[in-house]
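Give me structure tokens for this 547-residue protein.
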Amino acid sequence: MPDLREAAMTSKAWPFEEARRVLKRYEKAPPEKGHVLFETGYGPSGLPHIGTFGEVLRTTMIRRAFEVISDIPTRMICFSDDLDGMRKVPGNVPNPEMLREHLQKPLTSVPDPFGTHDSFGDHNNAMLRRFLDTFGFEYEFYSATEFYRSGQFDEVLLRAAERYDEVMKVMLKSLREERRQTYSIFLPIHPETGRVLYVPMKNVDAVKGEITFDDETGREWTLPVTGGNVKLQWKPDFGARWAALGVDFEMYGKDHSTNTPIYDGICRILGQRPPEHFTYELFLDDKGQKISKSSGNGISIDEWLTYASTESLSYFMYLKPKTAKRLHFDVIPKAVDEYHQQLRAYAGQDAAQRLNNPVYHIHGHNVPASDMVVSFAMLLNLASVSGAEDKETLWGFIRKYAPDATAETHPGMDQAAGHAVRYFQDFVKPAKVFRAPTDQERAALEDLAKALGDGDFAREMIAKKNAQEGKDDTLPEVDFADEEFLQSIVFAVGKVHGFEPLRDWFKAIYEVLMGASQGPRFGGFIALYGVEETRELIAQGLAGELG
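Here you go.
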């Protein structure tokens, strides 16, 4: 552990960089509350989306990193702002008309359009927790509704009433003139309609802890700020929550970054030191637009898990959190294969290298070995040329390549085969567009097929390629089971037939034989798919039978 801690204190992996900032808060004395508190916030106005998951995952990575460099106990809270009023009906829920009459009511007072929970807020909270539990996160769930109504927030709410003018001064600086006239940090919850009211205060009684206001009809009300009778506007709520809980770290998206001085200022006014922050860039959909839980664009967590493992999603979330990234279905295959590349590298790395490896931050000290004997990209290509309808079709190829592999001994491989078939059926198959070869391509493909069936001709192609390059290399032994030998055949045929640049030759192979503009290292593909099967595939492509 001392060696690991020493390496962690200089690691450039971003979770360790953030963890060291948190530790610096307590370089003079440990926290009086006895632990360091990490928090993530969630607005349950729509179904939880993948960005919410990323926030919890990344915070968990920083928490784990902190536990490597410090013995101070930690906690992590996932806080749901479910007392917020429903401002609009989400576009991706059933029975939207039923929800319209409940606009501006707290989400935990809005009926569940899915009919499975006591309220829409409860439904969305359950969805969030199910998603988080799928990934094995350790967290404590806090509901704003319970937090306000149980009295846990009362002390800070009374302090907000006492220091109302100070908090308002911070907020008013950030508002346009017309908004300032009606703004209040307190939002009363109407005793009769149950709606969250955006109304100005007629009086804030700091001694009694009460507010007085007129509702939309002009009727005057006086309510205590405690006991769930009011909630705070969302920006003051941020700072007040930090103060109430003693939060030490919270991350949020770039769209919140301009509000950081407001959150921090309110937290200080309410008597606590603001937490450390980490601002991450936003996820974008296939059109480059910010993903949104209310509009439902981008990929959901369930959708990702239909096509790939939980670990691949965690890997994607780890990468470059301060860089905006497209989060669409086409990023999945690359994430799967890169994750397994990192797993394979981990076994041979020293302590410092391991701490910089994404898989350490995904798995902690229990990094598994990869059992992917065939890459996900290759599985997709095998599914494509075989028209696979089930994973057993792919296992037919896998067993030829790795005879000792079985679904029982290689469960990750088995899972990936099933994912690959689904991905192929949903995304690759509909997008396949085959074309006929040009005369040059036809001649080259005919020679490739011949070389795959005739070792002497294969060596002749390689010899011609060597002569073109002015090389006098020793010709390789004929071994049609060796993917390097197979790749040398493919490479030689392309050179002999004058493809310049050579990538045009590989592009032709993919477009004529696979209906795609890019594909696998073709020698490896032949080794997996089979030499005779590849020759038959070429014959079908030349005959125009694949489209």
